[in-house]
Amino acid sequence: MSNLDRQAVPSLCGGRGFVVAEPVRELLSPRRVRLGESTEVRRLLPNLGRRMVGAWAFVDHYGPDDIADGPGMQVPSHPHIGLQTVSWLHEGEVLHRDSTGSLQTIRPRELGLMTSGRAISHSEESPRPHARYLHGAQLWVALPDSHRHVDPHFEHHADLPHVTAPGLTATVVLGTLDGATSPGTTYTPLVGADLTLARGAEARLPLDPDFEYAVLAMSGETHVDGVPVLPGSMLYLGCGRTELPLRAGSDASLMLLGGEPFAEEIIMWWNFVGRTQQEIEQARSDWMTGTRFGRVEGYDGGRLPAPELPPVALKPRGRVR
């Protein structure tokens, strides 16, 4: 999915200088962003208070939206470098096309994982006809310098491993959780899991104390380590945890995101993750001149133009603002 914000602001992220080394409970509020013509998302990362969680660098939560009388998601062809996109649905379907020739319908609780590597372009749209409701999350994972120029590719995994406890089912989206490992390709130590809790359930989820974590509330009422987390908000949890207490006040679902703190500093602007301003400028120029990113065949619409770069040089801002 694209960052369609026409006022795209570059920022220098990553590095270990602002990693919280102990457990915390930092509630992050979303920023509302219009995505295309018909979808509004709640952007949790990058946030005014925090820019990364491990290698997770971008998190949008959208829906549930009633799209019965509309086109649903319509995101034109757009470019990426230096990252992986993770498409995760609770309701609805998304049709993915990309410049490697991939064509895939992604359904609820199936992993759509696109590795941009050196360059890729893709589009996303609700199929015709489509389900009434659309609800999900779109996430980006920053690629480390050693792998950010890999060949672009797309993975679809419909069968993902689960971890269960009384009243809790955890689907392992990426990485490893409690001994269960996702088939999705990763390039840094991280974890992403979808947690489904039954009303009244209480559970303690095992965590890696070397990871930093955050929880995105997708639906329902959940207390995470004693903090109520409402749908569309994110609770940053810091590092140093061996377990995470959860209590559901209703049927609820969450996304657990974590990883080893990302040591490298990165520049993230629009749909690009790079290391220097010159690299970002070259990627924008290549997209606008129709080189390097290939073509997305079959999408009924034009390409998404890149916003203008800011007139000032990038300023280091670290992991937090």
TrEMBL record:
UniProt-listed InterPro entries: Pirin, Pirin_C_dom, Pirin_N_dom, RmlC-like_jellyroll, RmlC_Cupin_sf
Cofactor note text: Binds 1 Fe cation per subunit.
CDD domains, A to Z: cupin_pirin_C
GO molecular function terms noted in the UniProt entry: metal ion binding
Keywords: Iron, Metal-binding
Residue sites binding Fe cation per the record: 78, 80, 122, 124
All residue ranges annotated as the Pirin C-terminal domain in the record: 193-291
Every Pirin N-terminal domain range: 41-141
Cofactor requirements of the protein: Fe cation
Pfam family, one: Pirin
Family of the protein in this entry: Belongs to the pirin family.
Protein name: Pirin
Lineage: Bacteria, Bacillati, Actinomycetota, Actinomycetes, Kitasatosporales
